[in-house]
Amino acid sequence: MPGISSKFLTHLWAYKGGKQPFEGVDCLLSLTRSPSPIEEMQVSNASWVEVRNRTPGPFEGPQWPNLAPQSTYISVAVLMGLVVISATLANGLVIVVSVQFKKLRSPLNYVLVNLAVADLLVTFFGSTISFVNNARGFFIFGQATCEFEGFMVSLTGIVGLWSLAILAFERYLVICKPVGDFRFQKRHAVLGCAFTWGWSFIWTVPPLLGWSSYVPEGLRTSCGPNWYSGGSSNNSYIMTLFVTCFAMPLSTILFSYANLLMTLRTVAAQQKEQVTTQRAEREVTRMVVAMVAAFLVCWLPYASFAMVVATHKDLAIRPALASLPSYFSKTATVYNPIIYVFMNKQSWPTLELRSSSRFIGRGSRRTASGSCGQHD
C-alpha cells in the first residue's frame, strides 16, 4: 500500500497481538500518512517489550512471578510432597495386607482394594507429577504428558468416586434389605469394580477424541479437563461430566447413608435397653458423617468451581485460586484409607473393614429387616 512501509505494518501487526493489521480506528488513521521514524521506533519498542514481558507458555519455563509468586509454587510442591508420601504409605499398606492375608479377601474388601488402587494411581500420575512441576514452576514434561496426566487423573479419580458410591450402596442393600436377604458376594464386588472402571473410561476418553480437551489449569503445573476456556464443546462436556461423575455418585451416597441411618435409628429406638445397639448407632453415624464430609470437602470445590467457570465465561479467576480445587481433590487419596479402614476400631488390628451390618447387635437383625422406608 503506497505511503506505508512493509516494516511498519509488520511491527503494527505484532503489536496488535497477531490480529488483522487493519482492525481499529487507529489502524485506519495510520493509512492516511507515512509514519515518522519516531512512530516506527515507538511501535517496534512496544512490540519488543510485550514479547519480553509476556508469560512463558506452560511448557516453556517458570510461570512465576507472572501467574503467582514463587513461594506459592513452593508451598503447593510441599503440599503435594506430603500427599505423595502419606497416600503411598496408606494405600500401599491396604493393598499389601489385603493381598497377603487370605481372610481379608472378602467381597467388601475387593471394593476397598479397588479404591486403594485408584487412589495410588492418582498419587502416581497426579500428585507426583504436580510435585515435580510445582518445584520447577511449570509443566516440565511437555504437552503429550499433560494430556496423559489429565486423562489418568480423571479416570482414576472418578473410579475412586464411584467406588465410594458402590460401598455406600452395598451397605444400603445389606442393612435395609430392599430386595430381601441380600448377600454381597464376590461376583457383586467384581461387577461393581468393573463398573467403576468402565463408566469412568466412557466419560474420560472424549477429551482425547475432540470433545473438550485436557489442558494445563490454574498455576499451569497440572492438567485436567478444559473447564475455563468456554465454548459449547467444553461447556457441554463439563456439565455432562458433572452429572455423570459427581452428581450421580453423590446422590447414591446420600440416598444410601440416609436410609442406613434411619434404619439404625429405628432399631435403636426399639431396643433402648441394648447398650450394644446404641453404641453401634453412634459409631455408624460418626463414620457416615466423616465419609460424606470428606467426600464433599475433596470434590465439591472442584466440581462447583468447574461448573461456575464453565457457565460464566467472563468470570476472571486468579491462577492460584483456580488451582486450589484440583489440589483439594488430590488430598482424597489420603482421607479415603484413613476413614474407610483405619478409623474403624475393629478393623485396625487386621485392616479388615467389616460390613456395617455387623455393627448392629445380633438381636436387632430381625427388627432391621425390611425397616427401610418405614420410618416415622
UniProtKB/TrEMBL annotation:
Gene3D superfamilies: Rhodopsin 7-helix transmembrane proteins. InterPro entries: GPCR_opsins, GPCR_Rhodpsn, GPCR_Rhodpsn_7TM, Opsin, Opsin_pineal, Retinal_BS. Signal peptide: none annotated. The keyword Disulfide bond applies. It comes from Podarcis muralis (Wall lizard). This is G-protein coupled receptors family 1 profile domain-containing protein. Keywords: Chromophore, Disulfide bond, G-protein coupled receptor, Membrane, Photoreceptor protein, Receptor, Retinal protein, Sensory transduction, Transducer, Transmembrane, Transmembrane helix. It is found in: Membrane. GO terms for molecular function: G protein-coupled receptor activity; photoreceptor activity. Belongs to the G-protein coupled receptor 1 family. Opsin subfamily. The chain crosses the membrane at residues 73-99, 111-131, 151-169, 189-209, 237-262, 288-310. The keyword Transmembrane applies.
